[in-house]
Design goal:
The chain is α/β, with parallel strands linked by helices. It has one domain (2-148): Ribose 5-phosphate Isomerase B, Chain: A. Helices cover 47% and strands 16% of the residues. The protein has a five-stranded parallel β-sheet, with helices on both faces. Helix 1 (12-26) packs across helix 5, helix 2 packs across helix 3 and helix 4 (90-98) packs parallel to helix 5 (114-126). It is globular, with a radius of gyration of 14 Å.
Amino acid sequence: MKIALGSDHGGFALKEHLRDFIRKEFGYDVVDFGTHSTEAVDYPDFAFLVAAAVAEGQCQLGIMIDGAGLGSSMVANKLPGIRAAVCNDLFAARNSRAHNQANVLTLGARIIGDMLAEEIVRVFLSTPFETRHQKRIDKILRLEQEIYGFGRA
């Protein structure tokens, strides 16, 4: 599996930690879209790159880290086919995958620490979608097609 990973400056240290964690724990290929330092940057630039990589099929899932996880989720959810979820706890991580088939995880580096972030990522990457919720995902996909004129219906 290929994971798109990104952050703004506030999430840089956690991104670096999680990149190594994912490679070691899961053996997945991680594509790091930056940022590559703590120099101030704008989260929309990196959230877009992560979400686009997932929307275009370059990566199967994405993880984006900023201060709270909220702004990056808003950006990612602008792209058709993306279901980004802010998950700063284990319940949200599990529910986002099992019920909502989330394909982008956003995290708040100012809210959670390294160990909780590892657990959230572990749950997010290992929770399967419960197909009984497929009809709701189909409704989301139909809305995207109506709004954007393309996408899967």
